[in-house]
Amino acid sequence: MPDRIYLDWNATTPLRPEAKQAMAAAWDVAGNPSSVHAEGRQARRLVEDARAAIAAAVGARSQDVVFASSGTEANALALTPGLRRGSAEPGRRLLVSAIEHTSVLSGGRFSAGAIQTIKVTATGLIDLDHLRALLADGPPALVSVMLANNETGAVQPVGEVADIVHEAGGALHVDAIQALGKISFDINSVRADLVTLSAHKIGGPKGVGALVMAEGVQGLEPLLRGGGQELGRRAGTENVAGIAAFGAATTAAMDALAGDAMRLQALRERLEKGLMQTPGMIVFSADTPRLPNTTLFTVPGLKAETAVIGFDLGGIAVSSGSACSSGKVQPSHVLAAMGFGKDLAQGAVRLSLGWSTSEVDIDLALEAWRKLADALLRGRRNTA
């Protein structure tokens, strides 16, 4: 029996062996990738090999991959006023779905007055009619819609979103950080103009992200200035070891994607079948296409903080949703946007699975949940 069970893969993943090996090898490379001598060229080759691997994973050109310090920075870089598709009119406002990651909800470099929020349905999918109405009521816009939600796992119809946005003369940014390595997609199939990715969600190291642009995107302004790195789009010496590991993790994740997706979906179904034995159980976005590894659930009266601590004491790592809240357990803004009240939103617990998750892990998690649920029911009876 394992000492600890890790079921918080949407927050971050363990480092893949391939990524660890690539990172360790890169530590022995002394050169600066901007230097022209042999040592510098060796470092540059590591960066460019990783760039090619990431471009291949999402169907882009290598020269359109921009490395950053994180997915958050990549999102901020993408949210640039004036960005446009080819010769189209630059976007002067930003439309974001109500369930985006906080790094997108903050609006990047758009002023607060230029940001509008797109509603979502009770199932957690973007309200396409509301998007159309917002686009029709103003100048061209940059629209940001995530491919897969980090809390519910709901997969958005980004292809339809792209058609609507492009018809209105706008550009589409897709945060695909949770989707990479879990579902098949590429920048052409989702018809996105910009896509953001993050290494530590696919078995790479923390502290490395990437912005991928479609061919013909214009007007990207760097956040960091000072050097000519990343073709002038992001100044600063590249994190060679982290980038090399990102590339290795991406290749490993893509190689394993089909098999992992089937296996994880079977484990998720096993998990949810067990959860549904609890009276009053709610699995959010259950009837919506979802990531194969993600379950967000609650029962009336459950406090997420209590449940997360209870699981942890039982040797199981889970979360209440997004891991970007400085360790605080807060009501889910995603569930609030879906129309759920505070009582349910503050009780949501997320279990997310990964490549090493086993049936034994799921069964032990269900055993821990049954103990928590029994304690909750006893508490209700005692206060009745």
Automatic annotation (TrEMBL):
Keywords: Iron, Iron-sulfur, Metal-binding, Pyridoxal phosphate, Transferase. SUPFAM superfamilies: PLP-dependent transferases. Catalyzes the removal of elemental sulfur atoms from cysteine to produce alanine. Seems to participate in the biosynthesis of the nitrogenase metalloclusters by providing the inorganic sulfur required for the Fe-S core formation. Residues 5-363 form the Aminotransferase class V domain. One of its GO terms (molecular function) is metal ion binding. This is Cysteine desulfurase. Its cofactor is pyridoxal 5'-phosphate. It catalyses: (sulfur carrier)-H + L-cysteine = (sulfur carrier)-SH + L-alanine. Pfam families: Aminotran_5. It comes from Bradyrhizobium valentinum. InterPro entries: Aminotrans_V_dom (IPR000192), Cysteine_dSase (IPR016454), PyrdxlP-dep_Trfase (IPR015424), PyrdxlP-dep_Trfase_major (IPR015421), PyrdxlP-dep_Trfase_small (IPR015422). Belongs to the class-V pyridoxal-phosphate-dependent aminotransferase family. NifS/IscS subfamily.
